[in-house]
């Protein structure tokens, strides 16, 4: 079946957490509010949801599983999760039992016998092996997953995963400011039977009005505070160029970036991190933009 071009990214729904003593989560509302947000997204027509074991140490998967179960729409949704916890194991220590145990953790939290798409989450290159591939294929054969693939860290790792054909799904960065996954690259994936899911549509949460106003000195009090100052300065300069165009079209910077993701016609979808009702309102607004506004956005992107 076909799915909408904008998917719900569930990292923020995992809430606050630390990694190696540093903030690696998000300030969000109570769990009941987050579940309601997912339910409202489903009711609005969003049908792709992406989560991971690492998001809130399983909290994101749990909340998504609860909302999907309540919705009664499971068969109409594409659920994607990522096996973050396999990365801690040495490749030669991973066998069917350890792999299935890791997978079962996600199946339990998501309340699903079968997960549609399961990805390796930023794996070390050694995990992209024939042995790990065979474990995913066995999980497919036994009905635990529908498809598998990789969400790699770097551009080089994405290219490697594509070249060796590791699974049928690849996920990487795609935004108004990160367009290395261009049409020729995505067309090659399509010809190989590989599907692409864009992530970081707002470029790590920086294509926003708040960041435009406050600039590189902005304090986020979440995972973005780990970003280097040089990157913050570079992105602030770029969104300062985009903002007049967005204003002319009666769009916020975030809405402009979401609309830009719609230009990626070859991808399966692009993910937007949603943690507030206003975020969902913006997505609905962008989905209904007239063609002339989309054409102006395309022209602005080509001029970057």
What's the short version?
The protein has 304 residues and is an alpha/beta fold. The chain has eleven helices and ten strands. Helices cover 43% and strands 15% of the residues.
Helix content: 40-55%
**Overall body shape:** globular
CATH superfamily: NADP-dependent oxidoreductase domain
Distance between the first and last residues' Cα: 35 Å
Q: Could you describe the largest sheet, including whether it forms a barrel?
A: 8 strands, parallel, barrel
Order of helices and strands: EEEHEHEHEHEHEHEHHHEHH
Class by alpha and beta content: alpha/beta
3D architecture notes:
The protein has a single domain, classed as Alpha-Beta Barrel (TIM Barrel). The protein is 43% helix and 15% strand. The chain is built from 11 helices and 10 strands. It has helices at 31-44, 59-71, 96-110, 130-141, 155-164, 183-191, 209-214, 229-248, 253-261, 277-287, 291-303; strands at 6-9, 18-19, 22-23, 48-50, 78-83, 115-121, 145-151, 169-173, 195-199, 269-273. The strands form 2 sheets. The chain has an 8-stranded parallel β-barrel, surrounded by 4 helices. Strands 2-3 form a two-stranded antiparallel sheet. Helix 2 links the parallel strand 4 and strand 5 (78-83). Helix 9 (253-261) packs across helix 10 (277-287). The two termini are 35 Å apart.
Chain-wise SSE layout:
Blueprint: E1 6-9, E2 18-19, E3 22-23, H1 31-44, E4 48-50, H2 59-71, E5 78-83, H3 96-110, E6 115-121, H4 130-141, E7 145-151, H5 155-164, E8 169-173, H6 183-191, E9 195-199, H7 209-214, H8 229-248, H9 253-261, E10 269-273, H10 277-287, H11 291-303
Parallel strand pairs: 1-4, 1-10, 4-5, 5-6, 6-7, 7-8, 8-9, 9-10
Antiparallel strand pairs: 2-3
